[in-house]
Design goal:
The complex is a heterodimer. Chain A is an alpha+beta fold. Chain A is about 50% helix and about 15% strand. In chain A, strands 1-2 form a two-stranded antiparallel sheet. The longest helix of chain A has about 35 residues, at about 100-135. Chain B has a two-stranded antiparallel ribbon with strand order 1-2. In chain B, helix 2 (about 35-60) runs antiparallel to helix 4 (about 120-154). Chain B is built from four helices and two strands, in the order H-H-E-H-E-H. Helix content of chain B is about 55%, strand content about 5%. Chain B starts with 11 loop residues before the first helix and ends with a helix. Chain B is elongated, with a radius of gyration of 21 Å. The chains are: A alpha+beta, B mainly alpha. The interface between A and B is large, with 44 and 39 residues.
């Protein structure tokens, strides 16, 4: 009994780890939402993205989740007219990061919801284990 | 007072009688339906189901992941004549009589999202609540039957 429930906790903890990493990537994106280049015409900060996959190493143990890869968003930069900026090109345009606050916030909400759900499963597995252990103490 | 299971030398006859009564209770009375065994199997099945729920919740944002579930308890119990079996080498090794059931793709098939993921958090939470309730019922039944056996052997 405790074998399955023990690996349940291990699986949910992989979920916690993955969602936490996702939140960390979101925070990087938000923190760098206006990080531009300091050299004229240079590229600004590119939005980072994270993707998940089933963890094949743990398949016998129940198949948790892991971070597959971190990639960057290759969508074009926004440009702003700011001739006095050190990163401005000859026409006076500065490349701004391709970070969209609405997308980041939605992503963060989704990650937080996933994290919460995993915590709930761990809590419940612990409850089930302690129910079984309490069989010893009863009667 | 002689206790069942360890009759003292002085009161050997009484001890033997108590032991016989105990065996009678376990053999043909209370445990004739194999209730204690059934409860532990049921709880093993519930733990496995909880394991499947944990997989689904952990992979709630994994692209292309298909939600898994275990067959119903009666199916799992009936499939092998009352015995739950290990049906795939990747399953967790079974100890003595610990049942492990196959986890397969869920048939309910939640709406696949754009990424091809079929996990519905709401559905998983509902299932988790169900598992928790049934598990509590199982342990309570086990506990009360155990108490009855102990009190009759006292």
């Amino acid at each position: 009994v405790s074998n399955a429930l023990g690996s349940t906790i291990a699986i949910s903890s992989t979920g916690l780890f993955a969602q936490a990493q996702r939140i960390s990537v979101v925070s990087q994106n938000i923190a760098n939402a206006s990080s531009t280049s300091s050299t004229p015409g240079g590229d600004a900060f590119r939005r980072k993205m994270i993707s998940f996959e089933v963890d094949p190493d743990r398949i016998g143990d129940g198949g948790g989740v892991r971070v597959a890869e971190q990639s960057v968003d290759t969508s074009p930069f926004r440009t702003e007219y700011a001739p006095s900026h050190p990163g401005a090109d000859e026409q006076g345009f500065v490349k701004m990061p391709n970070v969209d606050m609405a997308i980041e916030l939605a992503d963060m909400r989704e990650a937080a919801r996933g994290y919460q759900a995993n915590v709930q499963v761990i809590k419940q597995a612990r409850e089930l284990i302690s129910m079984t252990i309490n069989l010893l103490g009863g009667s | 007072m002689a206790r069942s299971g360890e009759p003292s030398r002085g009161s050997g006859a009484i001890g033997a009688a108590v032991l016989a009564t105990g065996q009678q209770i376990l053999g043909c009375g209370m445990d004739s339906v194999g209730l204690l065994n059934l409860v532990s199997r049921s709880n093993a099945w519930l733990s496995e189901r909880h394991n499947a729920i944990a997989r689904n919740v952990a992979n709630v944002n994994t692209p292309g992941y298909r939600a898994v579930d275990v067959p119903t308890f009666s199916d799992a119990l009936g499939a092998a004549g009352g015995e739950l079996v290990r049906s795939h080498p990747a399953h967790i090794a079974t100890g003595q009589g610990v049942a492990v059931v196959a986890q397969s793709e869920s048939e309910e098939g939640g709406e696949a999202t754009y990424s091809g993921n079929t996990v519905s958090l709401e559905k998983e939470m509902l299932k988790a609540g169900e598992v928790s309730g049934k598990f509590a019922l199982g342990t309570s039944v086990y506990k009360s039957f155990h108490r009855m056996i102990i009190s009759s052997a006292r």
